[in-house]
Every structure is written in structure tokens, then in C-alpha cells.
Prior knowledge:
This protein is α+β, with helices and mostly antiparallel strands.
Amino acid sequence: MRWTSFFSPTLRDAPADAEAISHQLLVRGGFIRQLHSGHYTLLPLAFRVRKKIIRIVEEEMDAIGGQEVQMPTLQPSSIWKDSGRWESMGEIMFRLEDRHGSQAALGVTAEEIFATVANEISSYKQLPQMWYQIHTKYRDEARPKSGLLRVREFTMKDAYSFDIDEDGLDKAFEKQHQAYVKIFERLDLNVIPVEASSGNMGGSDSIEFMVRAESGEDDVLICGECGYAANIEKAVSQLSEIVDEPGPVVPEKFSTPEIRTIAALAEIGYPSEKQIKTMVYLIDGQVTLVLVRGDHMINEQKLADATQAVNLRQAWKNETIETLGASPGSLGAVKVSDLPILADHALNGRTNMTTGANEDDYHLSGVDIDRDINVSEWLDLREVQAGEACVSCGGSLDLVSTIESGNIFKLGSKYAEVFGAKVLDDNGVSRPLVMGSYGIGIERAMATIVETHHDDKGIMWPISVAPFQVVITVVQVKDEESMQVAESIYENLLNAGIEVLLDDRDARAGVKFADAELIGIPIRVTIGPKGIADGVVELTTRSDGEMDLVKIDDVISTITDFLS
RNA sequence: CGGGACGUGGCGCAGCUCGGUAGCGCACCUGCUUUGGGAGCAGGGGGUCGAGAGUUCAAAUCUCUCCGUCCCGACCA
């Protein structure tokens, strides 16, 4: 490709509203343009990168027996109603009606569709199966952000495995795990597999593949000692034991005017780890009290997972007052008998605690949880904090921000049962298929690579996904000899199957160098009159900026060697 | 959904307080000079000032409503 006919509108300044570095560089480099919030046009450069990522994903999926298919993105409401996700997907799902008034949705994910097709499998002899597609997904995100990192329309590789039993699923899951490791290696993304919540996918085991990045929005806890890693929605830790002083036989009410917070109560002599934090939630319409230790935070995803809630929110202030008769700041669960009370494990067995009295401006001290609070269920609800001890080795946990680049789920038979995807086993017994589902966001991977491969001059693509492997920068386009050498190297590289961009623009050298660096081509061949006089050209690698003088006749072999 | 900011040529911005019909840098076009790290000079093209309504002789500027975009939080397969 010749730059003079190539469409890559580079910009000197990034748009003011681009915050994430990948967003800035992809826009500045002429890879993408925004159409509206969460929807981006992929210009030729980005499209080339996308294709390469897709190719890598396809190769690794095919290598583990994946079969590529393509499902419709416009899907009838009926199958989503059958699985219950027409409801539970909530606002994330784009919905529309056709001219006949039939309701439909744009594909958010495809468990339902794949399970429907899996009806065609009738015997255990046809198993296992692994199907995947690389196709557009639509999600009405509450807040699209950070360029390609969180969008409403994107390409996803979604794979689905079908097995006769859990054992088969375990194998498929492991194969996908291994394939992911290879894919991310080839993309030069340093992924951390972490235990994760499966959200409303309804699965059991779930692993997310996370890449550390400044602009990441998922928090992960990692143990530097033993390698334990988990999403904050799932992470657990060890707490040092607290020995409570013996308390009174009944709780004692005391006046606490002006005291509305855990911190304020701590200041007057009731340490936060000796307090009970009481929060009021509406869990699928049911008012519920949720208790954690005073110095702990509730993680709502844990709460949602533990309760299988579809709709979950904190109660409004007025709802709280109606229910408990007091305002937030004076709430407690002592003597509450008509509401479910969910408590975090860290409160188990504690005595002589302090909590709100359910009467404004009063608290209770000397609360013995077993004796005074009617806990319905003990659950893991609290959010682990940085520095806490690892459950497996006691090491200190680090909190790091990451981008979720892929995930794998064990779905079990939920969808197979709903859609009647059953097969006969070797005893002639009908059994539902056991499914897994496995996703990777393609454009997100592209942006994540930029997040992790850039310097102050621009992008530094790994060779595996670079839009071009080589750029030939002709310093003096009007110098005939330079152009002749450039044309000849260009032709030879093309013949060698290498993707080359020939910068034949009549621009100043500085402009051309800056553009080449901005768009991140791994190898630059610089051709100028000076070198030609000596029979050499320059080879510069983008990743380390190192420059070598190479004889003109050796350029092709040097480059092909370097690339292989 | 809660909080905050912004909307003026392709990009970055000024002008708005105090109303008088739009300007700067980059980019773009033409010519000349220049040519190894974002050139110089000269000339030129391009803007419903987010939209609508209102106030006014007159609105980018004042008022109201709406729309859009970004950031923080909530939420998020």
C-alpha cells in the first residue's frame, strides 16, 4: 500500500474528550472515529489490526476443535423469555419490534441461540462439540467509555462447548483455558487468570483473563507470594482474629446525638471493627437487612450472587425509615424478626458489639450477635481490601486495576434443559447437554494492546497484529534514486508476502517519521540520499528505537529473518 | 440513575462577563523557496456558533426547553 492513496487521517492533537491513552492514540493515528457514544467506525488501519486478532483467535479455536459458525444478531424475544433472560438482562439489551409487532433483541450473547441449535445433537456419539462465532454484539451499556474499551457495539469471539457430563465440560473448559493462554501470548498481552463471579450467566466456575492497565475498570486482588488471584467480586481473604471482651447480659442503649457514621462512633470510643454496619437492601422486592463489620464494605456483586437476585438496590431513605423506624446512621438488626437478615461471616460469633438502636440518636452496645440478632443466613458479603492476608498462604494481597480481556464459564445444563438440548447416553438414557461458554472481545483486545504497548510517540504494535509489518519512509521523494530503491524494496517485500506501507508522500522527513511512529509500524526502512550514496538504508525497530545500517541488497533477507 | 464539565470549520482552542452578525493555531488548496525529526513567505477555500423557542432594532453572547458528548460514581455478559 502506498501512503499517498491510503486513508489514515492522523491528527496532531487528540480530541479533548479522549481520556484513555488507547482512545487518544487510536483516534490520533487515524484508526478509529466515533459515530456516537459507544459506536466507532474502524478505519483501514484498525480494520487490519482487527482482522489479525481475529485470525489468531480463529487459529487457536480451530486448534482445539472449534467449529466456526455464525448466528443471527437479530433474535426473537421468545428464546430470551424461555431462558428468563428477557427479564434478567434488563436494560443492557437493545430491544425492538418488527412491522408485525413481534418483539426482538439485538444479540447480547448467544447461549440461548446455541442451545437451540444444539437440539440437533441427539447422541452421545456426536459429542463433544465446540462451536464458536466471531460476530457483532450489542449492549446498551450504562456508560460507554474509554474509546474501544467499553462500547455498545463490538465484535466478540463467543464459543460454546457441549458435553455429555461434567467431566467433559471440565476438559472443554481446560482446552479453552489453554487456548486463551496461547491467544493472549500471541497478542502479547500479559493476562492474569482470576476467579470471577459468573453474574447472570448462571454458571458455576468462571475465570476471567485480566490485563493490568491504568485505565482498567475491574479490580483484582493478587497474592504476590502464591499467585492467588481473584476478581474483587469474588476475592476472599484471611482476617486476624478479634477477641471480644465479655459483654453485659442484655444490650445497653445509649444516647448518641449527632452521631451518624461508623467513623463518628469510633471517635467516641467504639472502634469500627467492634461495630455492626447495617444496610437495607431491596432484593427482588424483598426488604432485607445486610450486616457487615463496621470497618468492612459490602460488595454488591457478592450479595447478588449469594442471593441469586435479579434486581438489587439499596433502599431509599424513606423506605428505610418506614421499615426500621430510624434513619440511616442509627440502624440495627437487634430484635428485628420480620425481615430476612443476611450477615457476613466476619461477624460470626462476635459479642459485645455496637450497632444502631433503630431509634434516631441512639445506639446499642454489648450486642451479642448469636443472642441478639436473628441472622437468617451467613454469607461472604464483604469486599476484600488491599493488604489483607491471602487465604492460601497468608501473603499480602495487592489490589490492581485491570481490563477484562476474556472469560470462560462453566454453564452446566441450565440452557440445555430450557431448550430441550438432550442426548441419549450409552445406556439409552436421555440427558441434557452440559455447556460452557467462552468470550473474548476483539476490539477491546486491540485497545488493550495499545494500552500496554505505547510510548510518548505513539503505538508500538506487536508484529503479530501490526496493521503493516514494515513502513518504507522515503526521506526525499523527489530524489529519483531514492524512489527507485524504495520501489524495488517495496516490490520485493510484497513478493515475500510482507505487508508494507510505502510512505511516498511528498512531506518533510519529520512528519513522516512522526506518523510512522504514531501508527506504530514495527519496522521502518528509511531511505535517503545519504545512505544511498553508501549503498545502504536504515532499519529501525519501533519497539526499541534501534537503528541498523543495512546494505540495499540485504534488506529483504534481513527483514524476513527478523520477522521469522 | 446521582454528581460534574463541555458543545464555535476536520482537530485543538479564543470570543460569551459587558449583545452590534466570528477569530487564532494545526490540517487543507495554489504558487515560490526549502528539504534526515511535525518548514518559510504569499495567496485561498471551508463554520446552520448542538437544536428549538423567547427577549431585543440586533443573539455565538441574555432566558427557557430539549439534544448530544465526556469525566467521577452507581451499574455492567
